[in-house]
Specification:
This protein has about 100 residues and is an all-alpha fold. It has one domain (about 5-95). About 60% of the residues lie in helices and about 0% in strands. The protein contains three helices and no strands. It has helices spanning about 5-35, 40-55, 80-95. The longest helix has 29 residues, at about 5-35.
Length: about 100
């Protein structure tokens, strides 16, 4: 049993059509998701990255909660206790009189 040439050609046309459809679909997906190459697109991408790192309108020192603020470690804030304050007062008084 041999297939006629018209059946072979119709099957081959179907196969070629499917390949062309797959190639066109792949090109459409690539075109839609390609990376823009313009200078403006690069600037926009850079600005999106900056906003992600430091969103506008938020103070980096503010802690979520009832308005508490925490000084960063680099601020050089020194904590003193009540005993430090009492120890320094007699020294100052002694230095002024002596």
């Amino acid at each position: 049993m041999t297939a006629s040439s018209s059946v072979v050609l119709s099957n081959l046309a179907y196969l070629i059509g499917a390949v062309v459809f797959a190639v066109l679909g792949g090109l459409a997906v690539w075109w839609r998701h390609r990376t823009p190459k313009s200078v403006q697109a690069n600037i926009s991408s850079f600005n999106r990255g900056l906003r992600a790192l430091a969103p506008e309108g938020e103070d980096e020192r503010q802690v979520p909660g009832p308005g508490l603020r925490v000084a960063p470690r680099s601020a050089g804030v020194r904590t003193i206790s009540a005993t430090d304050v009492h120890d320094e007062e007699p020294r100052r008084a002694g230095a002024e009189h002596g």
